[in-house]
Amino acid sequence: MAKKMKTPIIAGNWKMYKTLPEAQTFLKEITPAVKASPSEVLLAVPFTMIQPLSQNNDSGVIIGAQNMNDAVEGAFTGEISARMLIDAGAKFVLLGHSERRQYFKETNDLINKKIKRAIQDGLRVIFCVGETFAEREEGQTEEVISSQSKEGLLGIDDLSLITMAYEPVWAIGTGLAASKKDASEAHHLIKNLIKEQVKVLYGGSVNPENAANFLKDDEIDGLLIGSASLNSDNFAKIIALTSEEKK
Ligand code: PGA
Questions:
Q1: Pairing relation of β-strands 222-225 and 124-129?
Q2: pLDDT for the residue numbered 245
Q3: 139 vs 25, 142, 178, CA distance in Å?
Q4: Which residue's C-alpha comes closest to atom 1 of ligand 1?
Q5: Which positions of the chain have pLDDT values less than 50?
Q6: Could you tell me the sign of the dihedral formed by the alpha carbons of 61, 121, 17, 177, in that order?
Q7: What pLDDT, on a 0 to 100 scale, did the predictor assign at position 14?
Q8: Would you say 234 and 19 are in contact if contact means Cβ atoms under 8 Å apart?
Q9: d(CA 62, CA 59)
Q10: What is the 167 CA–ligand 1 centroid distance (Å)?
Q11: pTM for this structure?
Q12: Most exposed residue of 34, 58, 115, 143, measured as fewest CB within 10 angstroms of its CB?
């Protein structure tokens, strides 16, 4: 079994939720848990909050974005570039999330271009892959995870800025998390494909009750959390689990 890497990552994805005052209160509330934890805590927030949350940020939380355009700059109304995100204080960007693939028709090829641009500009990337329910039912889980991972990382030699996230689409926002065994197998597959020391996070209906089980697994290096990252109590509880792990 792979040896567990040291610092767990607890990442939250706020999607299109919260206003700035709510976000500021949230950060204050989770700060004690973040400071007491050996894990890296990341929050992918809406664009408008990146700058205000990054300025004078003493929460210990690493602030990032949920999307970006693959171009350096250009006439792309409504889009945002990696350099703009960095300028605003973002330290990472979430790419390949299933909601982007599903609702905004992002392909592996586009995600690959975005990943390349992000790392060229020095932005860390959390790169999400995962199969739909139909794909799992049809026995295509391995194939889908492999092609998403390979095509997303095509032509990228230096993976030092990349963290992977395995998020089965059927587990996102459904309350139906993957079993530890299924998650562990998918993580193992991703690590074998990449053949580099890249961390892989599990995401999909993680909550304070099931988080410890995932964190115990040797293949799982952290968590990517949607709805439970919107509530400061829940998120702080999950962060605190990583402190207990270390004891
Ligand atoms: P969830 O979302 O925790 O609400 O299932 C996870 C995600 O979309 O990253």
A1: unpaired
A2: 54
A3: 44, 8, 15
A4: 226
A5: 1-3, 246-247
A6: negative
A7: 98
A8: no
A9: 9
A10: 8
A11: 0.95
A12: 58
